[in-house]
Design goal:
The protein is mainly alpha-helical. Helix content is 70%, strand content 0%. It has one domain.
Length: 343
């Protein structure tokens, strides 16, 4: 016979499509994201919010802050024994400041995977409700903050009766430059830690928006005050109020960008003034009537700045709430691009 033999049809099951780990994560993330109209502070209270998640995230963030910070601080305890006393006397304050700022700044990178691992929400949502860092918002906030603080310094110079000549020694200049370089990262780390992880984790525990926001503001500001390592009542109150004002900026702008800018500008101003213009007594932790007045004055300036920022960003229409349509469009575009690249 010359016929073609019949072969039995293959009984093998069809090969299932390969799903990447990133696609799996995006599907899980879609189930965790909050409903439309949710603000930044309550962003982590999605449909599957669990109290233990927030507690675990806070524990991991605290471990990051203290473990990483402690590792970086080890050289600070060794330097006084390594450097000659005369050199340490001149360079001790600048070196201590630079190491301290670096120890805080290096805690920042781990905060993003902490949110992703615990809440199954990508680290980009740690920036803002827009899912990205809005540089234009940060730059505008930095500009407004700089103008307000410059005007404040000008007024202080006019009313001051004892002008202080700037210290242009090499250690003072190095300390000031080091602060300018490192403070933006230090301020960002503190904002992502306190207002990003802690404030939002606490807010995710409460069904009531008002209770969640209130406890979030107070608890994150208390942690912010404790991180500055001074338990004197006057300084604790100062940092608490400062933290609440930064929390208001975060709540109103729907992200951390403006708060980071304000925080950085304030800290840079404080460090530069302390290195270049402060007298030795300015480094004392003793609370005097003059220091209390200075603290209250700076809080008044901060409150004025927050009011100006709210007025400015209200006019500019800054995005304050989560809009799923933006996220869906971005995800669809990314998936389509990936499929075209694989074909």
């Amino acid at each position: 016979m010359t016929g073609i033999p019949d072969f039995p049809a293959s009984s093998a099951s069809p090969v299932p499509p390969v799903v990447s780990a990133e696609e799996t994560f995006l599907r899980e993330e879609a189930a965790e994201l909050p409903p439309a109209g949710t603000g930044y502070i309550r962003f982590l209270r999605g449909p599957q919010a669990r109290t233990r998640r927030g507690a675990f995230a806070i524990a991991l963030a605290l471990a990051d802050y203290f473990v990483v910070g402690s590792i970086v601080l080890v050289p600070l305890f060794l330097l006084p024994g390594i450097l000659p006393p005369r050199v340490w006397e001149q360079w001790g304050t600048p070196l201590s400041t630079i190491v301290l700022l670096l120890s805080v700044a290096l805690t920042l990178p781990l905060l993003f995977p902490i949110q992703r691992a615990v809440f199954r929400i990508d680290g980009r949502w740690l920036h803002s409700v827009a899912g990205r860092f809005r540089w234009s918002l940060a730059l505008r906030a930095a500009l407004i903050s700089t103008v307000v603080l410059a005007l404040t310094a000008f007024v202080q110079a006019l009313v001051s009766r004892t002008p202080i000549a700037p210290d242009l020694s090499v250690p003072a200049i190095v300390g000031a430059v080091g602060a300018v370089v490192l403070v933006p990262f230090q301020a960002a780390a503190e904002e992502y830690f306190t207002r990003g992880i802690i404030a939002r984790s606490v807010a995710s525990w409460f069904r009531s928006p008002f209770a969640g926001l209130l406890v979030s503001a107070l608890s994150s500001s208390l942690v912010f005050a404790l991180l500055h390592g001074n338990l004197l009542p006057g300084l604790m109150l100062y940092y608490m109020v400062f933290g609440v004002l930064l929390w208001v900026v975060v709540w109103f702008t729907g992200g951390l960008e403006a708060a980071i800018a304000v925080h950085a500008v304030f800290n840079i101003s404080a460090f530069v003034q302390s290195f270049l213009f402060a007298e030795p007594a300015a480094f004392s932790t003793t609370i005097t009537a003059e220091s209390q007045f200075s603290g209250m004055w700076m809080l008044a300036v901060m409150a004025l700045l927050v009011a100006v920022l709210i007025w400015w960003f209200r006019r500019s229409g800054v995005q304050r709430i989560y809009r799923p349509s933006d996220y869906t469009t971005t995800t669809t575009t990314t998936t389509t691009t990936t499929e075209k690249g694989d074909s």
